[in-house]
Amino acid sequence: MSEDKKTFSVADYIVFIATLAISAVIGIFYAIKDRRQQSTKQFLMADNSMRFLPISLSVLASFFSASTLLGTPAEIYQFGTMYWISAFGAVFAPLAGALLFGPMFFRIKVVSVFEYLELRFHSKLVRLFGAFIFLLRATIGMGIVLYGPSTALSAVTEFPTWAVIVIVGVLCTFYTSIGGLKAVIWTDVFQTLVMLAGMMAVLIKGFMVSGGGESVWNINYQGMRIEFFNFDFDPRVRHTFWALLIGIFFIWLPPYTVDQQMVQRFSSARSLRDAKIALLLNVPGMFIMISLCSLTGLVLFAHFANCDPLKQKKIGNPNQLLPYYVMEILGNAPGIPGLFVSSLFSGALSSVSSMLNSLSAVTWEDFMKPHMKSTTDARATLITKCLAVVYGAIGIGVAFLVKELGGTVLQASYYFENVFTRISLTLNGAAGAPLVGLFILGSCFSSTNSIGALVGGALGLTFSLWLSVGAYLSKPVTNRLPVTMAGCNISTNETFYFYHTEDYLNYTRTSVDTLEGIDNFYGLSYLWFSALGIVSCVIVGLIVSWITGTTKDVDPSLQLEIFRKVRSLCSQSKGSMTLTHKEESSTLNGNTIKDIKESFQVKGSTKL
Q1: Other CB atoms within 10 Å distance of the CB of residue 122
Q2: Residue 123 contacts residue 607 (beta carbons within 8 Å)
Q3: Which of 353, 400, 464, 594 has the fewest CB atoms within 10 Å, i.e. is most exposed?
C-alpha cells in the first residue's frame, strides 16, 4: 500500500458505527418486544408471521454477501463482462424455489429442512448426513464471509484485520442470539438498503469521474473487457454463454431451493402466497445486484486502465480494488467512504446472522432435540440462543484460519483469480450439490430408497470435493486480461493510449488445448462443478436404489407437485385409478404427515 493512502474521516467512522449500532438496536428491540412470547417457534420461525417484502429482502441480503460485492467487480476488471451473463441464468434458481421446492416444504411445516429426508426415506442416518454437510458448509462459509470485508476495511483504514473480524463477529452474534429470526430478517432489510445505497453512490460518482457511460464503455472495449457472446461448447473454457446460463443456475440452485436459510424464511411467511412472492421478487433483485456489481467493475477498469494498482503493488489482492478505488475518488467526500464500507459489512452481517440462526436450528432439531424430548420449550429456546453464541465464536475462529490460508495463497502467486469468489463458489458446488441431489432423489422419484440416497449423497460429495480440490491445486487456463502501469506517470492533460502499450500488443490467450492428462478434467470450468455433483448424486442414487429394492409407497405430500401431476397423467393414460385431492394431501397407508412425525417421535429412531 502506498504511503499517501487516504483513510477514513470522522464522518466516515460516524456513518460506519451508526450502521453497526442500528443493526444491534433492531436485535435489542425484538428481544424486548417479544420477551413474553419466547419459544423455539418464535426464535427460529418468527412465529410464522412475516410478510413477503421483508422475507424477500432478507433472502437477497443473505445470499449476496460482501464476497459478492467485492468479488464481482474484481471479476469484471480482470476477466471482462462475460460473467454479467450469469444474471440471466441465476434468476431461474429463485423460480425453482418459489414454484417447486418451497411449497412442498411449506406444506409439511418442518423447522429443519433435513427433517424431510427422514420423513421421505424413513432413515435418521440420511437426515443426519444431510444436516452434517450443511453444518460443515455453513461454518466454513461463515468464516469466509467474515474475513472478506475485513480486508476491505483494513485497506482503507488503520483498523487491523483481526479487530474487524472480532467486532463484526461479536456484533452479529449478539443481535442474532437475543432477537431470533425476526430480528435477523428486519436487520437484513435495513442492511439491504445500505448495500444498495453504498453501491449506487460509488457507481454514480464513478460514471461522473470517468466521463459518463459512453466513455466508460469505450475504455472497456479498447481494453478487451467487453465480451458477451462466447458460444464455445468446450467445458474447459472458463466462462462461456452456456456455462454462465446453465452452470450458474446449478450453483445458485442449492441456496434457493434446499438451503436451511431459505427454507426457514420461506416457512416463516404468514401464508404460502407471501412465501412465493418473496422468492419471485428475488428474480429482479438478483438481476439488479449482479448488474450493479458488473457495472462497478467496468467503472473500475475505466479508472485504472492507464495504471493498474495491482501491478503497482498499491494493493495486495483484487478484493481491495474496489475499496482502493472508493478512497481515490470519494476519499474527500465526508461520509461516502463510510457508507460504502458499511454496505460491505451489511452484506457480511446479513449472511452471517442468517447462518447463525440456521446453524442453531439444524443443531437443535436434528442432533439434540431427539435426545432431549422432555425439555420444555422455554429451555429449548435458551439452548438455541446459546448455540448461536457458540457458532458465532466458531465462525470467528474459522475467519482467522481463512486469514492465514488466504494470505499464504495470495503471496505464493501473482497469477490468481478472485480468491473469495472462487472459494465461495467451490464450497457451494462441493457441499451444496449433493444436498440438492438428495432432495431431488426424494422429491422427484418415488422409487428411491435410503441406501440409494446415502450412497448417492456420499459419492456425490466425494466426487465434488475431488474435482474442486484438484482444480484448486492445479493451474487452470483462466486468461486474465492485460493491464498496464505504463501510464502511471502521465499527467491528466496528456494523451495516452493504454491499449498501444506492450502489455496489450503482446497479449495472447492461452488455449485450453494446452492441458494434458488429468488436467483436462481438473481444467473444467468451475461453473460446471455443482451441476456435475448433482447429476452424479442422482444417477448413483437411482442405480443403487434399483439394485437394493425400490420404495413402493411414498406420501404424495413429500413429492414435488409437478411430478405428482405427471405421474397422475401417466396413470390416467394407462387406465389406472388416480389419487383424489384428499389422498394427494394426506395419505400414506392412512397416515398424515403429522402422524408420521409423531410415529418417529414415539420410536425415537428409524431404520437405515
Answers
A1: 17
A2: yes
A3: 594
| Residue matched to cell numbers 459512453 | 214
User: How many CA atoms, within 13 angstroms, populate the side-chain half-sphere of residue 7?
Assistant: 9
In whole angstroms, give the CA distance from residue 64 to residue 192: 9
Q: Which amino acid is at 477?
A: V
DSSP 159: -
Give the position of cell 442470539: 177
Q: Which residues of 260-292 are buried (b: 16+ CB within 10 A; e: fewer)?
A: bbbbbbbbbbeeeebbbbbbbbbbebbeebbeb
Please answer whether residues 300 and 327 qualify as being in contact, where contact means their C-beta atoms are separated by less than 8 angstroms: no
Return the C-alpha cell found at 25.
438496536
Burial of 526 (0-12, 13-18, 19+ CB in 10 A): buried
Number of residues in the chain: 608
> Is residue 73 within 8 Å of 300, Cβ to Cβ?
yes
Q: Distance between CA atoms of 264 and 286, rounded to whole angstroms?
A: 20
Hey, which of 140-149, 212-221, 552-561 has the most confident mean pLDDT?
212-221
Q: Return the residue matching grid coordinates 412472492.
A: 277
The answer to whether the Cα torsion of 301, 302, 305, 306 is positive or negative is negative
377 is written with which cell numbers? 420449550
Do 579 and 556 meet the contact criterion of CB atoms below 8 Å apart? yes
How far apart CA 303 and CA 383 sit, in angstroms, is: 51
> Would you call 497 helix, strand, or coil by DSSP?
coil
Shortest CA distance to 115 belongs to which of 387, 337, 365?
365
Residue 4's pLDDT is what?
53
Contact (CB, 8 A) for 153 and 70: no
CA 251 to chain centre: 9
DSSP type of residue 478: -
Average pLDDT, the chain: 83
CA separation for the pair 226, 57 (Å, rounded): 31
Neighbours of 488 (CB within 10 A): 14
Which backbone phi and psi does 50 adopt, to 5 degrees?
-85, 145
**Cα(153)–Cα(346) distance, rounded to whole angstroms?**
13
> Alpha carbon 382 to chain centroid distance?
28
Query: Quick one: which H or E segment has residue 449?
Result: none
DSSP codes of every residue in 6-32:
----HHHHHHHHHHHHHHHHHHHHHHH
Give SS3 for 269.
strand
Report CA dihedral (259, 265, 266, 271) to the nearest 10 degrees: 170
Q: What mean pLDDT comes out for the span 418-422?
A: 49
More confident residue, 238 or 246: 246
